[in-house]
Amino acid sequence: LMHFKFKKNLAAFDCATMNTDERNDNAGDISPIEASIDISVAQLRPILESARDEQEIMTHMISMIDFVLSERMGLTATRTFISGFLDIVKEMSESLAVPLVTHVLESLEGRVVAIKLFLADTAANKQEWRKAADYLASIPWENRSEDIEGAFAYLRIAAYYIEAADFQEAETYVHRSSQIFKCENCDIEARKKMLCARILQGRQKFNDAAKRFYEVSLCILLPVEERTQMIRSAVLCAILSPVNQLRSRLLSALYKDSRTKQFPLFPILEKMFFENILPLDLAEEVEKELPVHQLQPTKDGFTVAQSAFIEHGLMSASKFYKNITLRDMGNLLHVSEETAEKFAARMIFQNRLDAQIDGIKKILMFKTRSGLEFLNEHIRYACESLNSINDDIAAAYPEWYEKIFESYKE
Fold it and tell me: What span, in angstroms and rounded, lies between the C-alpha atoms of 232 and 212?
């Protein structure tokens, strides 16, 4: 006979054959005297044989299953019970056996899920992000939860994979959250965009990432702290973006957004917006905001922040020079002549810099612009500077500014 021992009072066996509600209701009537009772699985047979119908058998068995698989029972007792339980189930009809075995599996699954959630939280607290993601990913969320719970779980898994710098897995779980769980929830949609932006940032697609971050920062459904973090990330990605038209629009939008003035990187954002050439050592301020995996030098020997500063310097020089020697260009950018030529050649090839390189004379020749174009550039710069001064005055003296503004309306 398969035996299992457990500490319980003298009425334990009768209690085990009750349903759960009856057992809870009668718990106060049970004698407090406790003793070791040796119950064999074989004792279930006469109870089952005396049952009037299958429903009564089902009730007795489920009561026993719930009792044994409760948190009060140890691992040894549980294992012994399951072994004997399977012997009895084999003799039952399929209509009884399948629901009972399913009930056992569901009861055990609840324990396993609770353990995995605990392990995931513990790993996350230790910043072991991949372990935390793997524990959560091993839970069959699509089989056991509501759509909204499963969607949030998949987004949490994606967030852990992003922290582990595994952007492929992160993207997979973001997509799965939409494909498997069909729920219309604005908070979930906002968090999907947030995670997509972080994935783009991790893959160094800074233009697209900055655009996504800025869009999410305007979502009023998110807490203020998260929106602030999103626009801060948008500023970082805009600074790191390759030179093109989208970058120019992003720099303009972020510079004019009053929220960006509080960030440490705002002075760099401002200088880039006004197309000033920045010293290369200033890139260290940007690198303080970057994750570890984006601090490694690229194949050019520069970090992503340093490369962004060099490209920005070349673009800025094109606004003020008709031509310049590569040596002087290198001195302006605080890099070698060869590095200046390499970056300029790449930008010209990618149609991001309108210029030519005279390889013999070592001269970088920018597209000649008419006097009217230069005049328009200066007018634009003057207008944007005036707008900036106007905004600063309004922020410093709001009451006076409003009074003056109203007087102009009259």
Answer: 12
The whole-angstrom separation of Cα 155 and Cα 148 is: 11
- CATH class name, domain 113-294: mainly alpha
Nearest residue to 308 (alpha-carbon basis) of 405, 203, 237: 237
308-366 is a CATH 1.10.10.10 domain: yes
DSSP 13-30: HHHHTS-HHHHHHTGGGS
Specify whether the CB–CB gap between 332 and 279 falls below 8 A. Answer: no
Give the residue carrying structure tokens 């997979």: 172
Helix (H) or strand (E) holding 48: helix 44-49
Angle between helices 129-137 and 94-125 (to 10 degrees): 170
Task: Tell me whether domains 113-294 and 308-366 share a fold.
Answer: no
Give the sheet arrangement for strand 363-366, strand by strand. Answer: 323-325, 363-366, 355-358
- Please identify every stretch of the chain with a pLDDT value under 50, giving residue numbers as ranges: 1-40
**In the block, which residue shows the tokens 């012997």?**
87
Is the Cβ–Cβ distance between 319 and 354 less than 8 Å?
no
| CB-based burial label for 255 (10 Å; 0-12, 13-18, 19+) | buried
Domain-wise residue ranges, the chain: 113-294, 308-366, 371-408
Query: Which of these, 264, 267, 216, 213, lies nearest to 238 by C-alpha position?
Result: 213
Q: Express each pLDDT in 36-50 by its tens digit.
A: 223 445 556 666 666
Which helix (H) or strand (E) segment holds residue 329: the answer is helix 326-333
Task: Report the 10 Å Cβ neighbour count for 402.
Answer: 11
User: Tens digit of pLDDT for each residue in 251-268?
Assistant: 999 998 989 999 999 999
**Nearest Cα to 309, choosing from 74, 107, 300, 160?**
300
User: For the residues of 43-108, what is the DSSP string, one character each?
Assistant: GHHHHHHT-SSHHHHHHHHHHHHHHHTSTTS-HHHHHHHHHHHHHHHTTS-HHHHHHHHHHHHHHH
> Of 127, 104, 119, 122, which is closest to residue 137 (Cα–Cα)?
119
Cβ pair 238, 251 in contact under 8 A? yes
Using CA atoms, how far apart are residues 48 and 52, in angstroms rounded to an integer? 9
Amino acid at 327: R
**Amino acid letter for position 104:** V
**How many CA atoms within 13 Å lie on the side-chain side of 315?**
25
Q: What is the pLDDT of residue 23?
A: 41
**Which residues are within 8 A (CB) of 118 and not within 5 positions of it... i.e. 6 or more apart?**
none
Per-residue DSSP letter, 164:
T
